[in-house]
Amino acid sequence: MTFNSGSEALEASSANGKGVISLVPNSTDHSDADDPVQSVRQLLEAHRNDKQLVLLQDFPDPDALSAAWAYKLIAANYKIECDIVYAGTLSHQENIALVRLTGLPARRWLNAADASHVADYQGLVLIDNQGTTSQLYEQLRGAGLPLTLVIDHHAPQSKLDAEYVDLRPHIRATATILTQYLQQGLLDLDRNNSKHTKCATALMHGLRADTNQLMHAGASDFMAAAYLSQFYDGQLLSAVLQASRSKRVMDVIERSLRNRKVQNNVSIAGVGYLRYDDRDAIPQAADFLVTEDNVHTAVVYGIVHDEDEEREVVIGSLRTSKITLDPDEFIKEAFGQDSEGRFFGGGRSMAGGFEIPVGFLSGFYENSEYNRLKWDVFDIQIKQKLWRLVDPEEGIINTD
């Protein structure tokens, strides 16, 4: 493994003796040996003519979708065929519009139909995640699919034995990293190529979404946006952004308003049970609650039920305007790790999320009293874990 930190590079062997992780410092001054783009170029050349599976988080956002599409176009230059998949669903209206209006080639992985085709792929690529937010990751690795590449802008979540990992926590969007790949010659965008124009539009949307419309952007993000401005379609992006909220999303926002509890400028709301397809209503509700006067941080959570697989998970989102609160640290401290050392959640600048399996208690029953009791237990437990960090008398993290 190679960790780049400032001007120093610390070398150590990985678990399988071949992994390389590049934790790229906040600098553009790299030698060729430390250049992640050159390393990715060499990796792609080594896997020429392969077929790769590009895995996104269960509920992919515009950053993940656009970055994966850019990687697919780059890989095609090396005769590498890529399929972009996710295990969950697209439920946010802008994500649905992005895929439909651009023809973005991502699809839901269907276990029964797709599992038998794992042997068709020679490598697994993780983009905008590190395997901890996909229920497919362990299944695919267990089937013998080697981890070829990881590209992400989040803080380290787990140990990775990939051939190469381009991990840049100082970058605000994975779309920015992929745009840098384009800028540095891994793919020459052509304004006359409609697929390139649509991908550039998707990247601009992903970059804006993960930087709060560039308000939290860094220098690298602004430079990436300036580059994309030469190729993206403004009318197409406007159409994506104007996608309307569904009635179910509005109902969840209303529920979060009704159930919210505010203490020390932090608003916490449980919204009960949600359908799997409505999962993205949770971050939209958090986005709304954080706009309330005298509230700097909002956390919204609910139990999401997957009727197809009888699976339930507690899913939550955090939004904050408090620059001294680190969402990644806050969520990891609040909810900890599972038995295998993987954190239940994490974050980036001004936002974070968590996903906790309900496990043995999964299942929606006809007995409404049982369902209410189950919700009450999870609601109280989550509130307790969050309030102990918010209450200054018992606080573990000082957010002042």
Describe this structure in words.
With 400 residues, the chain is an alpha/beta fold. It contains 13 helices and 15 strands. The strands form three sheets. The protein has a seven-stranded parallel sheet with strand order 3-9-8-7-4-5-6. Strands 10-11-12-13-15-14 form a six-stranded mixed sheet, with helices on both faces. The model is unreliable at 1-21, 23-33 and 394-400 (pLDDT under 50).
Break the fold down into its secondary structure elements and pairings.
Elements (H helix, E strand, L loop, with lengths): L1 E4 L2 E4 L9 E3 L12 H11 L4 E5 L6 H15 L4 E6 L6 H10 L3 E3 L2 H4 L8 E5 L9 H6 L4 E6 L11 E4 L6 H10 L10 H17 L8 H10 L5 H8 L5 H13 L1 E3 L2 E10 L5 H9 L7 E10 L4 E10 L6 H9 L9 E4 L2 E7 L10 H23 L10
Parallel strand pairs: 3-9, 4-5, 4-7, 5-6, 7-8, 8-9, 11-12
Antiparallel strand pairs: 1-2, 10-11, 12-13, 13-15, 14-15
Helix pairs in contact: 2-6, 2-7, 3-9, 6-7, 6-8, 7-8, 7-9, 10-11, 12-13
Output the helix-strand order.
EEEHEHEHEHEHEEHHHHHEEHEEHEEH
Number of helices: 13
* Uncertain ranges: 1-21, 23-33, 394-400
Strand content: 15-25%
Helix content: 25-40%
Rg (CA only) = 21 Å
- Quaternary arrangement of the chains shown? single chain
Task: Name the features.
400 residues, 36% helix, 13 helices, six-stranded mixed sheet, seven-stranded parallel sheet, disordered C terminus
Short recap of the structure:
With 400 residues, this protein is of the alpha/beta class.
